[in-house]
């Protein structure tokens, strides 16, 4: 396999992993109107949860249960679900801003735990040597990556079709009804806060799932992989792809991740060493501009389908 | 009484561009005239007064006051156009005191003039005087209505628009409010009033418009409509269950 | 113990200053502005920029580490911060306000916060900066309690600003219009008041307060592009704890958050200090979402 193709495979694995996060966020924002300002937190919980459950036993660590990968991922998802319940139960009956603020808070708290709870998370070093599922079965890293791409693509496809089915089920129609006229839905005996909670929690669970897949692929976790900027990147993917549109979510994930990596390459090639840190800032500014300008001028997204599913695109 | 004080001509308006609520509604009010608008729930009565007040966008048709065009008026210029408006709901600031509510109503006036008129309002409505430093949320429904009207009159408007001023009032209070409005008309103020209390409305107003499903249905001198069987039909026919 | 108390009050008064501006804009303009923290950073750096450009050096006043130049620089910074807030409101928030989902504005403020932070990083670089390299001598108030004169100044200034703001909101026409706007914007317009003017003044006041908070923070700690980002959660916690829109509440909330942070190190590792505001926030939302003193509008929808 030539270097380029190997890189492309690597790139797609990461992009498709993120696309699962974006679909989770789309359920929250695009279809329910809930602002999650701490996406990275739920992603990180899934990743750390998986790492702790599947990692090798080490004397100085609490975790390292060496459980099978699927068990680890499910465990990570459950942890993300619990975290979502904690903030969701506190806020979903209140003003919508409070959910945003709380999710922002939980992401920061999770980052602190990752950095400081050394015996569980490995602190700043993180946890290394997390087994990659079925790694021994494949002869070469290249073949393994191809396999993993297939795995992530399959999971992303399952999530995509699962979400589409859910959105067209009675539950999905209820979600839509609540979005369009909360009072009317409430008068029909539905509990809007409950339905919103379900959507929020399910979205966060998907973020946890993506976190588990991410760990399985790179084989370690460290706080550096879960910086707040990731929340903005995921948001940019959603907004660019067009919120309220799951196909757009996938396209947005790949597109924005491509833009991010390419701008990173360009900066590392073109900018002199002493300006590299400013280069990083420029990269982030591109993300910020993408979000704000798309909201202002292309509220339906840049590359998503034109058809409007979301109420934000009136 | 040649040109109307308020002339609403053939307006289309709604909360969303793709969903008009009013379809070509026309209404006129002359100087010192009392006009009521009646109609079943959801007929668009409130939407009509809101559109005149610039709170709901008008997509076609015109509104003019004393001959000058005020279509899609910026709401804060109502007072300049000599109009005062009391909405159907949330028509006082419950978190502010009575006094502060009145001060806000006088904010287009000079401080001295505002103070003078607020003092007059307290004379006219003693109940407000009594609670002047209380938050308006302690007021009863009728007292709130009084405060809202007192506030609206501070700018000495030529046209007063009231959206269901009798809602939630006891029959005794209703007749008191209507008496007060009548005496206001006799001082030269024109009134455009939305009412659910059809009988009382027809009894005291000069002319009445019946609105249903966002369209003019019948209008004419109130005394004539009072005996009109069609008015009742529109109410029942359009599914209204009101008195 | 005593020292933790003093430190807590200092951090608390800075949080309080920032939270006043946030609670005002949250209550009156009805949205949680994630970019408020970046107004704080911007204000702090603008003052630094003014100091650097003018290069005026006059000695510090009395026991404080700063002199007239920093005070002037703060005034300029307040103006520049207000300008930034007005520009952002005009370019971003105002066009999005008409959206059916008002969270779109909140989300856009999230994007704006990132942009402002990165622009500051580009202009000023990422390393820590200081307004002055004067060494300050701590004053010993009693055994076991030393405070910097600057810190006392910060506390005093917070109190002065709160009282002034209270009178402004209670006694002036503009203040009255602001409180009214928090309850019912349409009715404010019906009363003949141009809400756009009131909105503009709310931004100006909120941003100016943010700038002052930024300078005080920079004076007592150090300047980094992330200071606002790190303050955001404490600010929200303080504003919600005190009741959104409630100025006194924001001050009490700020002090509680500051004290809780500084006392927390007695019980939990210092690394978790930043999570304390989140715990407080969650507790408030579960137990008493309208805040300790109730807000201009309640916490419920
Ligand atoms: N803020 C709003 N946004 C969208 N639609 C609205 C809004 N307010 C009213 N409507 C719709 O406009 C239509 C007319 O409402 P309007 O309030 O004008 O009726 P009304 O004649 O005043 O009724 P009522 O007697 O109950 O006060 C209704 O179908 C209503 O659902
Ligand atoms: Mg009505």
From TrEMBL, chain A:
It comes from the Bacteria. Pfam families: BPD_transp_2. Its main location: membrane. It is a multi-pass membrane protein. Keywords: Cell membrane, Membrane, Transmembrane, Transmembrane helix. InterPro entries: ABC_transp_permease, LivM-like. The chain crosses the membrane at residues 6-27, 34-55, 67-91, 98-117, 146-167, 199-220, 226-242, 249-268, 280-297. It is found in: Cell membrane. PANTHER family: HIGH-AFFINITY BRANCHED-CHAIN AMINO ACID TRANSPORT PROTEIN BRAE, HIGH-AFFINITY BRANCHED-CHAIN AMINO ACID TRANSPORT SYSTEM PERMEASE. This is Branched-chain amino acid ABC transporter permease. The lineage of its organism: Bacteria, Pseudomonadati, Pseudomonadota, Alphaproteobacteria, Hyphomicrobiales.
């Amino acid at each position: 396999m030539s270097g380029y193709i190997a890189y492309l495979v690597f790139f797609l694995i990461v992009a498709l992993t993120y696309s699962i996060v974006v679909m989770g966020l789309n359920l929250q924002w695009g279809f329910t109107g809930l602002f999650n300002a701490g996406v990275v937190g739920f992603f990180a919980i899934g990743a750390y949860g998986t790492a702790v459950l599947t990692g090798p036993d080490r004397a100085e660590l609490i975790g390292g249960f060496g459980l099978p990968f699927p068990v680890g991922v499910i465990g990570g998802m459950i942890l993300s679900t619990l975290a979502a319940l904690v903030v969701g139960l506190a806020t979903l009956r209140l003003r919508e801003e409070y959910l945003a603020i709380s999710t922002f808070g939980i992401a920061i708290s999770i980052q602190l735990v990752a950095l400081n709870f050394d015996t569980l998370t490995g602190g700043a070093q993180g946890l290394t040597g997390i087994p990659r599922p079925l790694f021994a079965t494949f002869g070469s890293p290249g073949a393994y990556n191809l396999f993993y791409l297939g795995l992530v693509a399959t999971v992303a496809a399952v999530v995509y079709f699962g979400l589409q089915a859910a959105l067209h089920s009675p539950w999905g129609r209820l979600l839509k009804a609540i979005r369009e006229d909360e009072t009317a839905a409430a008068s029909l005996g539905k509990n809007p806060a409950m339905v919103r909670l379900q959507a929020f929690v399910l979205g966060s669970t998907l973020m946890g799932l993506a976190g588990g897949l991410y760990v399985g692929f790179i084989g370690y976790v460290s706080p550096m992989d879960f910086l707040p900027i990731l929340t903005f990147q995921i948001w940019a993917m959603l907004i660019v792809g067009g919120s309220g549109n799951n196909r757009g979510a996938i396209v947005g994930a790949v597109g924005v991740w491509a833009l991010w990596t390419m701008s990173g390459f360009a900066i590392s090639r073109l900018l002199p060493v002493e300006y590299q840190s400013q280069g990083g800032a420029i990269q982030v500014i591109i993300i910020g501009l993408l979000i704000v300008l798309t909201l202002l001028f292309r509220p339906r997204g840049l590359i998503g389908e034109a058809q409007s599913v979301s109420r934000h695109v009136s | 009484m040649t040109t109307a004080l308020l002339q609403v001509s053939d307006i289309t308006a709604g909360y969303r561009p793709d969903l008009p609520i009013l379809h070509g509604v026309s209404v006129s009010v002359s100087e010192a005239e009392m006009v009521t608008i009646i109609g079943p729930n959801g007929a668009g009565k409130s939407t009509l007064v809101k559109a005149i007040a610039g709170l709901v966008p008008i997509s076609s048709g015109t509104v003019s006051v004393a001959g000058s065009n005020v279509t899609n008026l910026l709401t804060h210029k109502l007072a300049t156009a000599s109009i005062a408006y009391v909405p159907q709901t949330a028509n006082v600031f419950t978190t502010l005191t009575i006094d502060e509510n009145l001060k806000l109503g006088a904010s287009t006036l000079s401080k001295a003039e505002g103070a003078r008129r607020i003092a007059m309002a307290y004379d006219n409505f003693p109940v407000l005087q009594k609670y002047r430093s209380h938050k308006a949320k302690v007021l009863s429904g009728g007292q709130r209505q009084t405060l809202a009207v007192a506030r609206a009159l501070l700018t000495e408007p030529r046209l007063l628009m009231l959206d269901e001023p009798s809602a939630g009032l006891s029959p005794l209070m209703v007749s008191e409010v209507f008496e007060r409005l009548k005496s206001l008309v006799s001082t030269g103020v024109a009134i455009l009033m939305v009412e659910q209390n059809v009988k009382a409305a027809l009894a005291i107003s000069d002319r009445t418009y019946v609105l249903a499903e966002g369209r003019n249905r019948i209008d004419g001198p109130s005394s004539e409509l009072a005996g009109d069987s069609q008015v009742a039909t529109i109410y029942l026919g359009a599914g209204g269950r009101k008195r | 113990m005593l020292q933790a108390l003093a430190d807590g009050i200092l951090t608390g008064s800075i949080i309080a200053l920032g939270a006043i501006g946030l609670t005002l804009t949250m209550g009156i303009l009805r949205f949680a502005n994630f970019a408020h923290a970046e107004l704080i950073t911007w204000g702090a750096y603008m003052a630094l920029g003014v100091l650097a450009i003018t290069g005026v050096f006059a000695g510090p006043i009395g026991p404080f580490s700063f002199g007239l130049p920093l005070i002037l620089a703060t005034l300029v910074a307040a103006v520049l911060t207000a300008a930034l807030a007005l520009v952002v409101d005009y370019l971003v928030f105002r066009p999005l306000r008409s959206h059916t989902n008002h969270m779109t504005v909140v989300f856009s403020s999230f994007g704006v916060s990132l942009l402002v932070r990165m622009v500051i990083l580009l202009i000023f670089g990422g390393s820590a900066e200081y307004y002055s390299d004067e060494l300050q001598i701590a004053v010993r108030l009693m055994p076991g309690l030393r405070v910097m004169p600057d810190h006392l100044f910060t506390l005093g200034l917070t109190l002065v600003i709160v009282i002034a703001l209270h009178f402004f909101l209670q006694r002036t026409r503009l203040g009255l219009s602001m409180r009214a706007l928090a309850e019912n914007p349409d009715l404010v317009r019906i009363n003949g008041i141009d809400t756009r003017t009131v909105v503009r003044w709310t931004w100006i006041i909120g941003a100016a307060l943010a700038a002052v908070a930024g300078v005080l923070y920079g004076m007592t700690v150090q300047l980094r592009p992330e200071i606002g980002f790190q303050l955001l959660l404490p600010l929200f916690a303080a504003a919600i704890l005190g009741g959104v829109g409630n100025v006194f509440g924001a001050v009490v909330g700020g002090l509680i958050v500051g004290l809780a942070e500084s006392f927390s190190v007695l019980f939990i590792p210092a690394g978790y200090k930043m999570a304390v505001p989140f715990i407080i926030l969650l507790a408030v939302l579960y137990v008493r979402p309208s805040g300790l003193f109730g807000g201009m509008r309640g916490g419920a929808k």
